[in-house]
Prior knowledge:
- By secondary structure, this protein is mainly alpha-helical.
- Helices cover about 55% and strands about 5% of the residues.
- It has helices spanning about 1-10, 10-25, 25-30, 35-40, 65-70, 90-105, 115-130, 130-140, 145-150, 155-165; strands at about 45, 55-60.
- Strands 1-2 form a two-stranded antiparallel ribbon.
- The termini are far apart.
Amino acid sequence: MKWSLKKWCGERDYILFLIGIKVGLRVGDLLKLKVSDVKGKKKITVREGKTKKPRVIHLNNIYDEIDDYISNMKTSEWLFPSRKGNQPISRVQAYRQLNKAAEMVDINEGIGTHTMRKTFGYWHYKQFKDVAELQKILNHSHPEVTLRYIGITDEQIENNLNQFML
């Protein structure tokens, strides 16, 4: 997906996807970012639109790519600018670009803007196995919501329990 976005859609859409899968923000919150929000920063605080809660976002592992992307942009610009004037791209446009990139690499499953957040959640859980931490990061109300959200099914849980040994 990253290769396809970079090659066929452009740097803006690649960086949107990169930040989306690395930090797990909702697309609406990503699209509200301006260059000034990230310029020179490895850690930012975002007030989430849905929950209205502040969330600290660490950009350490993608800082250099973001810095390269914004190097020729004004600090007052939207991080993901639309060609239609002084506004960010819409959710619909983000969806179109993600689907275009997915088609180019023969991904036919349902790709949407929320796929980035779910991808972050799934791989964070796979790496750290800490549902409580992930629940807090995603601002979910209950661990079961988080597990269902990232696609950890009852069958996977049962399989893991069957293999569990002390």
